[in-house]
Automatic annotation (TrEMBL):
Its cofactor is heme. Residues 23-411 form the Catalase core domain. This is Catalase. The keyword Iron applies. It comes from Streptomyces melanogenes.
């Protein structure tokens, strides 16, 4: 490569803003960008001001169409590493060598709302992973629930139109609680299984770092001999599966609409790298029809009690993007981006996605060359005969751009048998051309009931509350009533509880005969590694704080990976009991309990705590209690709990007396360690239900 060509390619990359002066797109230095060129100080602007025209023209064309669904997202880079070779069931190269780390980019997203909507809406979350493998890019484009709302892709436009804001008034934004969605649901019972997941706390995750991911569809692994194995993909977070509750999710939308985005970004910046384990459910091809549901039905899952999830590797996200638009917004996923060793099945929803994703990227990213964008560019060599088109950035050499050719030496040559070429799995397909769904797709209730039966009591109550909220927003009483009748086919108790809350007659009978359950579906079974790493603990402080006893406890919690923030009625410092200053991290007016995982009330001056007169502090503690969050209290902090009507012996409330109440006048390290241990266990459990109501 000549020096001129090298310089040209290097300059094409984004330049360090501090490396030189402002320039035009042509590299011409600019000495003034605050005023356009005009005739005199008050005269007309001149068209010859090329800098003015270039600057505004670029600004006018900065936006690209946002995604129709999954518009609001956040992303990060990292790597995937297999535990051992998976050659027994797939030839995919990135699943063979435990010493090889495959780069990845992951994008998390909500489905319904536009880019400007909030993070914590009730919605399904996208979980899409791009593997930059040595054989080319592989995209695992999934969600945080294992099933979808429809069985055939031809219904996808109908479903999304019903889910999206209603066309006459563009309301609601980022929400499913409206007439058109529930009208569709009540008329399409195939949606019920996914709806049960949507009404559960899975639809309001505490963090992207604390939610599962699923490939949804049944795919196929293919080994080196061409033998196929059906496969379902699972991402399981190391931190466990944690959720918000609906009340705090709604408040988060106002307190911090970027709650999940910020959480992901800050964790990676702090070095608390999120980690997931990739697991697979493997089904031999000869067992395709061994279940009472169809493996090709995307509204069904394989219960883990029937086919256990086999862990095959781990993924770590360790780098934030440099530029949101260039990377997170322009990343292009496609279910048909496969590598040798992974193939499709005849799932009709998957087949539709294989068409739709590429079609969408052509519109969003302005033409067929979007794979050349840095975030989409494979690490594997790319040699094609594709030419020209919008945004072509490759300077191709040679006289030929077709196959076969002799003038170019036959290059690029067709890959030989030993070159790792992709080969589709061979299977015989025959049948009549029809528009008819298989009878094996007709059971829409059993797995919805399985999900309901697998929930703990508190999860069931949250599902009932969610249905009451959603259907309570529906104006058409006929839609409310019809939805309840459909729910009765899932579970009569559920239907009756929902009907009671939304003012429609309870169904005369309901299906209470579905008895199966799958413990793996409940969040009670998904507690993670038991650590408190990355949990946010609010330390409510005021003047008179007893710092000597508190310091080792705060240090111990931080050493376990928690983030402890001192929150006071004002910023700056407060005055400790010994007269020293204590630095405040946040002021009460800027935060709320919903932004934290636990609350710690330290010891302070004898008598009533100064926090009792702070309305925000009182609400902070009471909200934490109502939302089942761990609360720790020391000394006068215990008295504060009593004054607020919080039972000191309630689940997840951990207390310890003050040094003065013991009569020795000095804090005990043993007491501090014992309290810290109990409080750590409470925080690790995340939520504590079955609490008595606040006494006043």
């Amino acid at each position: 490569m000549t020096d001129a060509k090298r310089t040209q390619q290097e300059n094409y990359q984004a330049q360090d803003p501090a490396s030189g002066p402002l320039t035009t797109d042509q590299g011409v230095a600019v000495d003034h960008t605050d005023d356009s060129l005009r005739v005199g100080e008050r005269g007309p602007t001149l068209l010859e001001d090329f800098h003015f025209r270039e600057k505004l023209t670029h600004f006018d064309h900065e936006r690209i169409p946002e995604r129709v669904v999954h518009a609001r997202g956040a992303g990060a880079y990292g790597y995937f590493q297999p535990y051992e070779s998976c050659a027994a069931f797939t030839q995919a190269a990135f699943l063979q060598d435990p010493d090889v780390k495959t780069p990845v980019f992951v994008r998390f997203s909500t489905v319904q709302g536009p880019r400007g909507s909030a993070d914590t809406v009730r919605d399904i979350r996208g979980f899409a992973t791009k593997f930059y493998t040595s054989q080319g890019n592989y995209d695992l484009v999934g969600n945080n629930v294992p099933v979808f709302f429809i069985q055939d892709g031809i219904k996808f436009p109908d479903f999304v139109h019903a889910l999206k804001p209603e066309p006459h008034n563009e309301i609601p934004t980022g929400a499913s609680a409206h007439d058109t969605l529930w009208d569709f649901v009540s008329l399409q019972p195939e949606t019920l299984h996914a709806i049960m997941w949507l009404m559960s706390d899975r639809a309001i995750p505490r963090s992207f770092r604390m939610m599962q991911g699923f490939g949804v569809h049944t795919f196929r692994f293919v080994d080196a001999e061409g033998n196929g194995t059906f496969v379902k993909f699972h991402w399981k977070p190391r931190l466990g599966v944690r959720s918000l509750v609906w009340d705090e999710a709604q408040e988060c939308q106002g307190r911090d609409p970027d709650f999940n985005r910020r959480d992901l970004w800050q964790a990676i910046e702090a070095g608390d790298f999120p980690e997931w384990e990739l697991g697979v459910q493997l089904v031999p091809e000869e067992d395709e029809f061994a279940f009472d549901f169809d493996l090709l039905d995307a509204t069904k899952l394989i219960p883990e009690e029937l086919v256990p999830v086999r862990p095959i590797g781990r993924m770590v996200l360790d780098r934030n993007p440099e530029n949101f638009f260039a990377e997170t917004e322009q990343v292009a996923f496609h279910t048909a981006n496969l590598v040798p060793g992974i193939d499709f099945t005849n799932d009709p929803l998957l087949q539709a996605r294989n068409f739709s994703y590429l079609d969408t990227q052509l519109l969003r990213l302005g033409g067929p060359n979007f794979a050349q964008l840095p975030v989409n560019r494979p690490v594997a060599p790319v040699r094609t005969n594709h030419r020209d088109g919008p945004h072509q950035s490759v300077v191709h050499s040679g006289a030929t751009s077709y196959t076969p050719n002799s003038l170019g030496g036959g290059c690029p040559a067709i890959a030989g048998a030993d070159a790792g070429a992709y080969r589709h799995h061979v299977e015989r397909v025959d049948g009549e051309t029809i528009r008819r769904r298989s009878a094996s797709f007709q059971d829409h209730y059993s797995q919805a009931a399985l999900f309901w039966n697998s929930m703990s009591d508190w999860e069931k109550q949250h599902i009932v509350d969610a249905f009451r909220f959603e259907l309570g927003k529906v104006e058409a009483m006929s839609v409310r009533a019809r939805t309840v009748e459909v729910l009765a086919s899932v579970d009569g108790t559920l239907a009756r509880a929902v009907a009671e809350g939304i003012g429609v007659p309870a169904p005369r009978q309901g299906a209470d005969h579905h008895k199966g359950n799958s413990p793996a579906l409940s969040q009670e079974s998904l507690r993670g590694d038991g650590s408190i790493r990355t949990r946010r603990i609010a330390l409510l402080v005021a003047d008179g704080l007893e710092t000597e006893h508190l310091a080792p406890i705060r240090e111990a919690l931080s050493s376990r990976g928690a983030t402890v923030e001192a929150i006071a009625p004002h910023d700056g410092k407060i005055t400790g009991l010994d007269g020293s200053g204590y630095v405040v991290d946040r002021a009460l007016p800027t935060v709320a309990s919903v932004l934290y995982d636990a609350v710690l009330l330290p010891d302070g001056p004898p008598g009533d705590s100064p926090l009792l007169t702070e309305e925000a502090a009182v609400r902070f503690v009471r909200d934490a209690y109502r939302h089942g969050k761990p609360i720790g209290a020391l000394g006068s902090g215990v008295a504060l709990l009593e004054r607020l009507g919080v039972a000191a012996d309630a689940h997840g409330v951990v207390t310890a007396p003050s040094a003065s109440s013991r009569g020795d006048g000095a804090p005990s390290s043993d007491d501090g360690e014992e309290f810290t241990g109990r409080f750590t266990e409470a925080v690790a459990a995340h939520r504590h239900w079955n609490r008595p109501a606040l006494r006043h």
